[in-house]
Amino acid sequence: MASVASATSAPSSHKAADTVIQLAQTHKPKPDPNGLVFGSVFTDHMLTIEWSLQEGWQKPHIQPFGNLSMHPGCSALHYAIQLFEGMKAYRGPDNKVRLFRPMLNMNRMLKSAHRACLPSFDCAELMECIKKLVDLDQDWVPHSDSASLYIRPTLLGTEPTLGVKKPSSALLFVILSPVGSYFSTGAKPVSLWADSKYIRAWRGGTGDCKMGGNYGSSIYAQYEAVDFGCQQVLWLYGDDHQITEVGTMNLFLYWINEKGEEELATPPLDGIILPGVTRQSILELARQWSGFKVSERYLTMSDLRRALEENRVKEMFGSGTACVVSPVGRILYQGENLHIPCEGSFPPLASRLLKELTDIQYGRTPSDWSCII
Amino acid sequence: MASVASATSAPSSHKAADTVIQLAQTHKPKPDPNGLVFGSVFTDHMLTIEWSLQEGWQKPHIQPFGNLSMHPGCSALHYAIQLFEGMKAYRGPDNKVRLFRPMLNMNRMLKSAHRACLPSFDCAELMECIKKLVDLDQDWVPHSDSASLYIRPTLLGTEPTLGVKKPSSALLFVILSPVGSYFSTGAKPVSLWADSKYIRAWRGGTGDCKMGGNYGSSIYAQYEAVDFGCQQVLWLYGDDHQITEVGTMNLFLYWINEKGEEELATPPLDGIILPGVTRQSILELARQWSGFKVSERYLTMSDLRRALEENRVKEMFGSGTACVVSPVGRILYQGENLHIPCEGSFPPLASRLLKELTDIQYGRTPSDWSCII
C-alpha cells in the first residue's frame, strides 16, 4: 500500500544509483565453457542488499564473492523463508552481452516475495543493480554460442528468532555462474518417471512461486526416478493424473488432439504450475507463427497414452531457462515405457523453437525481448 | 545399506565421545523467565557437526554461539534442503534438568533427514551430543515451573552448487533458547481461522516431516487469519474439509461422537499430519486412563458443526512441544464463529493433560518418559 510506505521513512526499494562497489583484489581463472557443471563455478563479485522492517532497504553492495555470515536462528534456515530466480546473460557474435526478458523474472520474483511474506521492492531498480553486477563481471560471460552466464537472484528471511512469523529482516543477493547445458547428457532426449506417489504442488500451496520449499521436497522423488532408470520426474496431479511439469521445466505436447486439430498444448497456470519465462515465450512465438492451434489446457496421462496408441503425438518437450528446450523421449508410467517420437534426437518443432529463442537470446535476431547490458 | 556404509571409511555417524569443546570467553546475562519472547534469546554455546559424502561425519564441536559462514550457493538457502526439531529441557524442584522423550525427536529427525535426502546418523550419539551441550549451558535452564530451555536441532544441505540434487555436504547444528509460553496471549484459549483457500500439506508431500518448506509456505495464510481476527490457521484438507492440524500444534476434539460415545479424537497419521511427541503422549496417557474412547480418526468441519449444534462438544485443544496443551475457544469457518466450550479458560481434560504432562516434564512425577541430564 503506497500510502503506508510513504508514511514511513523506511525506503520502499533499494536504489541502483546508491550502489557501493568494492572490487575483488584477485580474479579467479575463467573455466573452459565446454566442461561446465551447472552452477558450480561462481564469478568474482556478488550483489547484496539488506532490508529491515525499521530501516527499509539499504544501499546495494557489489562486493567480492564470498561466504555469507548468517545467524543460526534465522528464518531462511529453519522455515525456508526463501525464494530465488534464474535468468541468463548471453554473449552475441557482436560481443555484446544481453539479457532475455529480464523484467519477467523481476516481476515473478516480486510475486514470490509477496507469497513468502518477504519485502517488496522496485523491479526496475533491482534490474539496474543486476546489470551493474553483470557489467562488472562481463568477462565471465562465455565466448560461446551454447554457454551463458547464469544469474541467480535470491531473497532470504534473516529474522534471527524462532517464532514462525513474517521476518523483520531480509537479505537479497545475486550470484553469477557460467554454465553450459543443464542436463549432463547434453541435448539428448530426456526420460521421465510419471508416478502419483509424490506430488510436487497442490492448489492452495506455493507451486506457482519460485520458493525453495518446492525444490527440496522434490529431490527424494528425483532419486526414485533414477532408480527406475529415468532422468527426471514428471509430476502428476489429481485422480485423473494430469500432466503438470518437471520441476526444472514446463512441458509441451505437440500433437493431433482429440478433435483432430494440430495443437501445441501446455498445462494452464492454475496455481500449481511455475509460470516459466521460456514457457511464455514459446506460447507467444507459436501464436505468432499461427500454423497450428496453441493451447493452455489440461492434459492427462490417459490423453497422452491414447494419442500415442493412435499415432497422434508429434513431439513432447520441456522448456526452462536452464535447458531452453529439451525433447522428451520416454515416459515410464504404470510400469510401461511410453515412447515419444523424436526424429533424430531433436524433433522439428523443438528445433525451430530452440533456434528462434537462442537466436534472440544471443542477439543473432533483433528482438525487443533482448536487453543489451 | 549397512554393507555400503561399512565398505567405505566415511563414518556413518558422529560420535559424542569425539566432541571437541571450545568454551565461550564471555557469558551473556540470563533473561527474566517471565518476559521471554519465544526463541529470541540464545545461550552461550552451540553444537555443530559437519558431514560430507567423501569424509562422512566429522567430530562434533561445541563452540561459542555465533553466526554460521555459509556459501551463497548452498542448497539450504536455494532449495530449502533443511529440517529441524523442537524439544525442551526442564528444571525440576529437585534442581535436576530433564528432557522429555528425546529419542522420539531424534527418530523423527532421522525420518525427516531421509525425506530431505540429507545424511542419516546414529540417534543415540546425537542425543549424547545434545546432552553435553545442555549440560554445559545448564545455568540457562530457567528456574521456573512454566519456562524451559528450548532445544533446536537443525540439519542443512550445504552443497555449494546450484543443481537441484542430493547434497554432498551438510551441517547439523543445535542451538538453545530459554522460553516461556509460545503464544503471546499466554494460557488463554486460541482462536482459529478455518478456510480451504490455503492447504498446508497433501498426500505425496512432506507434511509428516519437520522440513522448513512446510512452515515458510504457511506464513501468508497466518496473516490472513490475523486479518480475520484469529490467531492461527486451522488447516483443512480435501473436499469434505477434514480438520488436520494448526501447523505449530496437533488438534484434539473431546466430544460425544456420532454414536453417543465419549471420545477423545485426533486426526490419524496418514502422511499430512506432523507426528507430534505431545500428540503421542496425550494418546498414550488417555488410553491408560481408559475413562473414554481414544481414537485416531478423521474429523470434518461438518462433524464439528453438527456436534456443536447438538451440544456434544466438550473441549477442543491443540498440543505441541512449544505450547504443551492449548485450548481452542473459537473457530471462524465460512463466515461463522463456532464457539467451543471452554469452562473457565482451561477446560477440565486439557487441564488434566497439561498437569500430567508438565508433572512428568518437570520431574514432579517420576516417569520413564523423563530423561535426566
From TrEMBL, chains A, B:
The keyword Chaperone does not apply. Its cofactor is pyridoxal 5'-phosphate. Keywords: Amino-acid biosynthesis, Aminotransferase, Branched-chain amino acid biosynthesis, Cytoplasm, Lipid metabolism, Pyridoxal phosphate, Transferase. It catalyses: L-isoleucine + 2-oxoglutarate = (S)-3-methyl-2-oxopentanoate + L-glutamate; L-leucine + 2-oxoglutarate = 4-methyl-2-oxopentanoate + L-glutamate; L-valine + 2-oxoglutarate = 3-methyl-2-oxobutanoate + L-glutamate. GO terms for molecular function: branched-chain-amino-acid transaminase activity. Pfam families: Aminotran_4. The modification N6-(pyridoxal phosphate)lysine is found at K210. GO terms for biological process: amino acid biosynthetic process; branched-chain amino acid biosynthetic process; lipid metabolic process. It is an enzyme of class 2 (transferase). The keyword Glycoprotein does not apply. SUPFAM superfamilies: D-aminoacid aminotransferase-like PLP-dependent enzymes (SSF56752). CDD domains: BCAT_beta_family. Its EC number is 2.6.1.42. Belongs to the class-IV pyridoxal-phosphate-dependent aminotransferase family. Homodimer. This is Branched-chain-amino-acid aminotransferase. The lineage of its organism: Eukaryota, Metazoa, Chordata, Craniata, Vertebrata. The gene is bcat1.
